[in-house]
Amino acid sequence: MSATPWYKDFAVYREPRIWVIFGFGMISGFPWVLIGSMLSAWLQEAGVNRANIGLFGIVFIAYSINALWSPLIDRVRLPWLARHLGQRRSWLLVCLLGILAATAGLGWLDVTVQTWWIALLAVVIAFLSATQDIAIDAYRIESFGAHEARLQSAGAAMATAGWWTGYSGLGAIPFFLVDGTHWNWQQAYSLLTLVVVAQIFWVILAPNSTRYSAVTTQLKAGQSWFHHTLVAPIAEFFKRSGWRLALSMLAFIFLFKIGEAFLGRMSIVFYKEIGFTNDDIAIYSKLVTWWVTIVFAILGSLVNLRLGIVRGLLIGGLAMAASNLLFAWIAGVGPNTNLLLAAVIIDGFTGAWSTVAFVAFISLLCNRAFTATQYALLASLGNLGRTLLSSYSGFVVNALDGDWQLFFVLTALMVVPSLLILLALRKPLLRLEAAYQQDSN
Fold first, then answer.
1. Which portions of the chain are predicted below pLDDT 50?
2. How many other C-beta atoms are found inside a 10 Å radius of the C-beta of residue 51?
3. For 220, left (φ over 0), alpha (ψ -120 to 50), or beta?
4. C-alpha to C-alpha distance for 156 and 121, rounded to whole angstroms
5. How many CB atoms lie within 10 A of CB 34?
6. Which of 24, 350, 292 is CA-nearest to residue 156?
7. What pLDDT is stored for residue 131 in this prediction?
8. In this predicted structure, what is the pLDDT of residue 120?
9. Whole-angstrom distance, CA of residue 283 vs CA of residue 340
10. Phi, psi (deg, nearest 5) at residue 115
11. How far apart, in Å, are the Cα atoms of 102 and each of 129, 189, 284, 415?
12. Cβ contacts of residue 210 below 8 Å, gap of 6+?
């Protein structure tokens, strides 16, 4: 635990690098509005079956396999752009330009007759977003030295706060427009292209990550580029951790967020089926969640500094499972906005706490020689459980005959296996964390 007075922990938020990362977090979270909550609401209003809405979540598989092309972000320099913007920002700019075009395309389509084209553009946005996330995560980790553990933790908090600002803060806009001004969803997509334009300017004006350097190690005879850029980072991780500890940590990463993902994938469908309006969703699910997450992401990072990442994960996981039960209560009561307010506050608190600890935990496991590749591999594994399995959440609700109460109870139980793994690995992980903190000091 830290011996520094608690109020001095807030000093890290005066660091300009932290706020650059906050802006990049917004860029990371915003595409989830376009292909997540906004698209789900559009499909639900068009009468699409909840199972098919759930299957649209398969587009998020891009976040689970982006490690396959993560070496490109480390080693391939984009002509002209890399010289003027640097390695990370040049990739970010290209991805944002593609997302801008795809978002504009969604504004021209009719969901009732052009579903396949909508699905295709959702896939394009997902893959471009997953690619820019590689650069954003690498930028964040490389922005701080190995001795700056407090800034790394604060960076994880601001990345989380920024992500939720992009997803919930900006994500409230289309719901207000559709209900308040009677716009259609296509017009809302067209307006949101302006948000992407603003993000492009943010990338252009941001500084470069100061600790990036291309890998210049000469390849040994017979060693392929594939081996050097993908196999070597994996081999280094297993060699450093030991295969038993490494496999156990990978199992934890895969399982930890599954319950939260099942809830999140069906949340918009649940809100609309239970009787909440688009304005209710915008106010409670978006705006309230936004501010709650920002506040508790920052507080969570400070608490994690005191308790440690491993203890923070354990507490956050237990709270995350318990918060899902509030949604089961709403399912039994109906569209009660007071209960919804309580649910999103508690869910935002537990989600922020657990996410900050989770991001810091994955960052802790990365070797800086392979920053982008190793982080992408570990984050992809976590996303695999969230996206691939949660795509079938609609089928689960249908199999339960629309019993939302039972569904949310099941999502609460889904976190238990990962917490059992964490308890089993508690001692070696605490030693790993202590060693990292000692190196940082």
1. 1-2, 7, 214-222, 439-441
2. 16
3. beta
4. 30
5. 24
6. 24
7. 92
8. 92
9. 10
10. -60, -40
11. 11, 10, 28, 35
12. 142, 143
Residues whose CB falls within 8 Å of the CB of residue 427, separated by 6 or more in sequence, listed in order: none
Contact 268, 48 (CB under 8 A): no
Report pLDDT for 26: 92
Is the CB of residue 347 less than 8 Å from the CB of residue 296?
Answer: no
Radius of gyration of the chain (CA): 21
Specify the pLDDT at position 200.
95
Fill in the amino acid letter for 125: I
134: how many CB neighbours lie within 10 A of its CB? 29
Domains observed in the chain: 20-212+225-440 (1.20.1250.20)
Predicted pLDDT of residue 222:
44
- Say what the pLDDT of residue 129 is: 94
pLDDT value of position 199: 94
| Cα–Cα distance measured from residue 241 to residue 218, given in angstroms and rounded to the nearest whole number | 25
Rounded distance, CA 207 to CA 17, Å?
A: 9
pLDDT in tens, 325-374: 888 899 888 888 888 888 888 877 777 777 777 777 777 777 666 666 77
Tokens 């997953």 locate to 130
For residues 151 and 359, is the Cβ–Cβ distance under 8 A?
A: no
Q: How far is CA 172 from CA 165, 178, 271, in A?
A: 10, 10, 14
The separation between CA 179 and the C-alpha centre of its own chain, rounded to angstroms, equals 27
Specify whether the CB–CB gap between 314 and 422 falls below 8 A.
yes
Q: Cβ(365)–Cβ(304) under 8 Å?
A: no
